Amino acid sequence: MNLRTLILAFLAARSPASFPSEVIHARISQSGYLDKAVTANEAADELRTLASAKMSALVNVDIHPVTKGESWWATDAGVKQWTLDGRMNVGG
User: Fold this and answer.
1) What is the DSSP string of 46-87?
2) CATH number of the domain where residue 40 is located
3) Number of domains in the chain
4) For the whole prediction, is pTM greater than 0.70?
5) Residue 78 domain flag
6) Per-residue pLDDT of the chain (92 residues; tens, 9 = 90+)
């Protein structure tokens, strides 16, 4: 299965909650839907791609002001795309 689709499905199903990239990577890796193992860096790259204007900003990120930690969440456009994709549930 496509990593980008899995990440969007994980976040959109839990909207408006947000998650660190490490949690997203762990949950999609454990889902059993990936065709091959992916690294945390590959998952982070896909998150950045999903947040880009090219992808209509399907996800967004908040940066904690003190820890500088990232927390990712699905935008309204991302939830709409997930709905159009069939509302797949990923990561329990």
Assistant:
1) HHHHHHSGGGT--EEEEE-TTT--EEEEE-HHHHHHHHHTT-
2) 1.10.10.10
3) 1
4) yes
5) yes
6) 899 999 999 999 999 999 999 999 999 999 999 989 999 999 999 999 999 988 789 999 999 989 889 999 999 999 999 999 999 988 76
